[in-house]
């Protein structure tokens, strides 16, 4: 069951007019929110980022946080899995094609759910491979925009190379993955690129840094050069759907002898524990 513009319905019955600005211009924003045991994880943070994205494209938030929470919980109730990830999508609505904002048009609001499957155990034992590519996206990567063509093309480079993710480099520095944030470990220190307009402020990224703080893991938030990435002791990938994954091959070269490292194993365990206990934020 999905939600579209005020109605709940089976996805097969959901249609959007071809003049929707999401379809014509990619003019909209989205969120991906995990729910574990049918409870939304880090909802406030996701809704804050949604507001930030809406502000970034100058679109009024059509709902209060309480209304969003109620809609999301109804979607969770109407879908089968205990663990789900919710996709929430807002566009500037349906209007005659013109680049300028339409006046007096209602936004299109779409919410769907998919089962959230844990990464297969084998993947956690072997890790995944990644490649690097030049980050050729726009300079508002902090907005979670639905116009994802550059991310699509960059991620496909990984698929073509039989890898899982493309790690992006802008002006010699690591930004993030095509659909994830990236951490580097060197000499037992966890390194994270600083938030800026050049990367999406990941909710999982924040959780990992909070866990590092809480468990007194040495960490630094600073620019990471391409060379540091290549010489990393460990590389970690984070996102709401993949949680924390070890990258054990970069551009066909083994990282940490091709095995997940100590930092990954610790953070993975802390993350699983955090999910259960909801250490700080109950929602
Ligand atoms: N993507 N950077 C990019 C470009 C992303 O697309 C994502 C997530 C992240 C990680 O953010 P978070 O931890 O809040 O999920 C970073 C989602 C999962 C997607 O587009 O499906």
Percent in helix: 25-40%
User: Helical segment tally?
Assistant: 8
Shape by Cα distribution: globular
What is the CATH architecture annotation of the largest domain?
Alpha-Beta Barrel
Name the hetero compounds present: N-(5'-phosphopyridoxyl)-D-alanine
Rg, rounded, reads: 19 Å
- List unreliable stretches of 5+ residues: none
> What is the overall pLDDT average?
97
Molecular structure report:
With 283 residues, the protein is of the alpha+beta class. It folds into two domains: 2-115, 2-Layer Sandwich (D-amino Acid Aminotransferase, Chain A, domain 1), CATH 3.30.470.10; 121-278, D-amino Acid Aminotransferase, subunit A, domain 2 (D-amino Acid Aminotransferase, Chain A, domain 2, Alpha-Beta Barrel), CATH 3.20.10.10. It contains eight helices and 15 strands. The protein has helices at 21-25, 43-56, 65-77, 121-126, 149-160, 203-214, 226-230, 262-277, and strands at residues 2-4, 7-9, 28-36, 39-40, 84-91, 108-115, 128-134, 165-170, 173-177, 181-186, 189-192, 219-221, 234-239, 243-250, 253-254. The strands form two sheets. Strands 7, 8, 9, 10, 11, 12, 13, 14 and 15 form a nine-stranded mixed sheet that branches. Strands 2-1-6-5-3-4 form a six-stranded antiparallel sheet. Strand 1 (2-4) and strand 2 form a beta hairpin. Helix 6 crosses helix 8 (262-277). The longest helix is centred in the last third of the chain and has 16 residues, at 262-277. The protein is globular. It binds N-(5'-phosphopyridoxyl)-D-alanine. N-(5'-phosphopyridoxyl)-D-alanine binds at residues 32, 151, 176, 179-181, 200, 202-205, 238-241.
